Amino acid sequence: MNCKHFGVCGGCSLPGVAYAEQLLQKQARLARLLGMPVPPLVPSPLEDRFRTKVSFVFGPEGQGRGLVMGHYARGSKQIVRIDECPVHSARGNRIAFALRDRLMRARIYGAGAQRNGLVRHIIVRTTEDDRQAVAMLVVTKNDKALRTPIRGLLASADRPDGFFININDRPGPFMMGSETIKIDGHSHVKQDGIIDTSFLVSPTAFFQTNVGAARTLVQLVIDGVGDAQQVLDLYSGSGLMSLPLVKAGVRVTAVEENRQAMKDAEANIRLNRIPGGMMRMLTSSVEDALPRVARDRWDAVVLDPPRQGCPPEVLDGVFNQIAPPRAVYVSCNPEALAAELPVILNAGYRVTRIQPVDMFPHTDHIETVVTLSRG
Known about the structure:
By secondary structure, the protein is of the alpha/beta class. It has helices at about 20-35, 90-105, 145-155, 210-225, 240-245, 260-270, 285-295, 310-320, 335-345, and strands spanning about 55-60, 70, 80, 120-125, 135-140, 160-165, 180-185, 190, 200, 230-235, 250-255, 280-285, 300-305, 325-330, 350-355, 365-375.
């Protein structure tokens, strides 16, 4: 894959490395970190256009008050102006670039780290086939100066199927704020075909951006759970693992603290016509939920934590207190997995299968599914 921004933009960390070599490098790195042999990565079905979540950051132009849209340079907060992004959805790129051009013509300023301007981020969610798209503009305030460029976009051939404004005036790395205003159209895109399950995905909720690789993750989790009848799904998000498990006949209790993700999960339950009683949802942090669910019997536990991994109290609660016969750990951070896996093994578990998946080609990211059995 060619991109004129390789080597400058921090979005891809393996510029110019042949894809087959990328997979070998990642396999070797994971084996080194875990101290055990690992099989080859399951490759991404696509090497480009695989990101169904398109996101760019806005900043001021140079030292002035203009607007630049792009990605951060690797290891810094300097914004690299982006004119193409081959890993993004083609339609998502068109929407983002079209809005950027209209913002520039309207003399809307980029906020930057100091939040001196108005616009901070653009996020576009598309379906795998690009037929549906919803966009969200993150701003420091809902200013009337935004009306002309947004109306122009919505009246153009590049219009998304839904449009939102999100207000985030807080400092720090958080991309979105707590207030989201729907401006036009649909609230979600409908992503079909993930192990016989459909999902409504909103711009604000987490959902795997490489849908093809997500199918692999879900199938690995289903295989790891095996014939389990009662499964506890921790860090369940909008139901990516829970709903296919339920469709396979498993009763699932899903734990997630993000309220928007849980609202999406409720919508996905209705969309997939899940029978009552097959899926119970707890809107709670995993730490707070564990004492409640530890009294029940679980055939398997699925963990899909954020990048920092599981806190010690979660590992203790799952592997020492609940102590299920099986567990499936979905890790997006090899360093965190390398630190936590010895703790899990010391609790009396053994690895029955480990399978890395290439979720993000052209980066050093590795998604790993570890299946564990007690005893």
